[in-house]
Write the structure tokens for this entry.
Amino acid sequence: MTEHLDKLPFEDYCKTIFNKDALFDKPESLKGYRVLSCTQYILGPCAAAYLGELGAEVIKIEVPRLGEPMRHCSPYNETWFYPVSRWNPGRGTSPAFQGANHNEYFVTLDYRKPEAKEIFYNMVQKTDAMVWNYRPGTFDRWKIGYGACKEVNPRIVLAWCGGFGGFGPGRNWASYDILGQAKGGVFSFTGHRAGRASAGFPSKHTTWIMDYSIGMLVSTAMLAGLYWRDTVSGVGNFFECSQVQGSTRYTEYALPLWGRSGVVRMRWGNWDTEICVNGICACGLSSHPHSDHPAEKEEGYICVQAYTDEDFGKLMNLIGRPDLGKKYATHDDRVEARAQEEIYPAIEDFLKNKTKEEADRIFKSKGIISQPLLTVLEAANTDHWLDR
């Protein structure tokens, strides 16, 4: 069977071994490992959930009665903005909780009670790894910190993650995704320009993108800890991850840019500081002008990429602006802010009487890379989504 698969073309090979209809028949790389998730909100829970996706048995411990706070955090404001469905999701567990805590079992414990501590230690004895994201020192005050857990199970791999870290001047401050991005420097160059590249307002992402990203770093560290324990040391270890420090990591080249040249990265909106054309452009027409759904009814947007000299020339000819193709013939010419301030409005002028789908067809017919911005509903109904 393996020899037959190895002879398949790459696409057929991928479709065969990653067959979504055989998802639950595949071996799981972390099967047999157990993870305790003593977490809340997003950063800690998703780190454990990622390990669950790889086959680990994840048990989440919540406080009695109320459970984890994220169960009650609601995105349901959107329902009140456009009540187009008879289904009222305003009750029950929040989908946001489910998104960060999938592939898990759930129990409740009051850690401060002696009988609960006994149950907790029994679980620790049979556990490979734990994730915590309560405030620093909370579990130590409850007499169930890393030192106590290590005595019960020397092989335990424990990761603590939180806003400002387990030490330092901000260790006791509360932090959530948006605060971590603010402290870490991310928001300094998100958002739109106000006339010039050096001005404008920050823009907050509407999903907890930093928590989910840093959660992946935490789960990667735990995998490394488990590997080191099982192949080298025979004993567990402890990891600490700061949300703020992780956010700074995701500023990409902004920090070394400042360190080497003294240049502070600025907001650039839907354009790009490195290449042009590589941005999001507004289309003038809605794809669903009669929809009751605001996200469908609004005018569309499309990503356009034409940064090589050849592609840029084709794009400018297509939109009827060959003069710009000549004026900004080289990449060094058009990547400047003043050049982009002339180029992108010209593209949007071409798009003012088109839907995003019409624009996409026109661009692709001329070999220009483009992609309409899709709503979640549209994305979930694409051939790409359904095929994979």
Notes: The chain has two domains: 2-249, 278-387. The mean pLDDT is 89.
